[in-house]
Structures are given as C-alpha cells and as structure tokens.
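Anyone? Bumping this.
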Amino acid sequence: GAGVSQTPSNKVTEKGKYVELRCDPISGHTALYWYRQSLGQGPEFLIYFQGTGAADDSGLPNDRFFAVRPEGSVSTLKIQRTERGDSAVYLCASSLKGEVLTGELFFGEGSRLTVL
Amino acid sequence: SQELEQSPQSLIVQEGKNLTINCTSSKTLYGLYWYKQKYGEGLIFLMMLQKGGEEKSHEKITAKLDEKKQQSSLHITASQPSHAGIYLCGADRWGGAQKLVFGQGTRLTINP
C-alpha cells in the first residue's frame, strides 16, 4: 500500500511478556517517528529516526522500551517485561526530510496494545 | 497541567452550524499543527501555522495562530457529518517538527 503500515493492529499480552510492534513507512521517507496514545489523550512522542539512527529517543519512558531501524526503512518498537500501564495505541509516522518544513507527518493506523 | 490545552474537550453541534476549537500553549511555539483523528484510524494532517498572525484555510476549515504564537483556533463553517472526529493540536517547541507535543484533543460530534 501507499501509506504507513503497522502490524499487528491489535496485540493482547500478559504482564511480563515481550512485545514487538512493526512499522513500515512510506517508501522513500527518511524520517520515522513513534508516538504512544493513551485513551482520551493526545499522542505522546517516544522516538524519532533519521535514516538508521535514533536522532531523538528522549520520549522513551524507561529502558524496557527500545526501537530499531537497521536498514533505514522498517522499524520495530520492542517492549520488554510489559506492564499494564504500557497499554495504549502505538502510532508510527513517517515523513520526507524535506517535508518536515510543511509539517506533514503521515501516520499509520496504530497498533493497539493491551497488557492483561 | 498540560503544555497544550484544548477547549472544549468535547463539542456537539447541529449539522450546518459553525464551530470553533481553541488550543493554548504556555510557551511560544515554532509551529502549531492541526490533525484530525477518527476512531481506529491514524492522524490526518490538516494544516500547519508558523508565523504570528498567520491564517490558513482548507475547504471549510480555517485555522489561525495569534501574534504571540501561543494560541490557535480552528474554525469550521457550515459543519457536515464528515467533520466529526477528534481534532488534535500539536506544538513544535524546538523547530524542525521532529518532536510534537499534542493537546488532549477535542471530540466533535455533528448531529443531523
């Protein structure tokens, strides 16, 4: 497809388990972002990649959260030892570096994580 | 308190009526972004404002950024059912739009 693709769309796991969420950005977009959205709240920034490197990971809440983008395209958000408070919708977005000035981030539909 | 405060938190209007959503920042912004979100979907970009006093329009939606770049309003004229959803303002406080701080959203319902 032409848009940002996120898998899985829904994930239910038990407390303490390991989870991976995948984001496939729009082809050619060098910038990739992860946000987290809790119920009734706006999205909260987690991490930003420019190419393969994490340019800003200041939003990751603790060391249980880690994200990679080894080839500068697909990214995986990894959550270790999940806690009930991790339950949220995890949104991925991408943009062309040059389009940052237009402000347009292209968002995926999100991965809804539920930790029981 | 939120860095960005949106008001109202929810709004119900009759189809065809005009409405305004406000977004207030406690700090001066590099840019202010408006997005729309429908349930189960990602955010859709509406417009970006950078200059104090700037105003932009897209179809029946107009957004303004005040001179001090700390408050923005989103105005919808002659609302339609397709306008229903959650409107989110996002602030760029550092420049470059790599990291946006979002408000909590305004849920808009349009009654036929």
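Late reply, but here is one note on the structure posted above: Chain A has one domain: 5-115.
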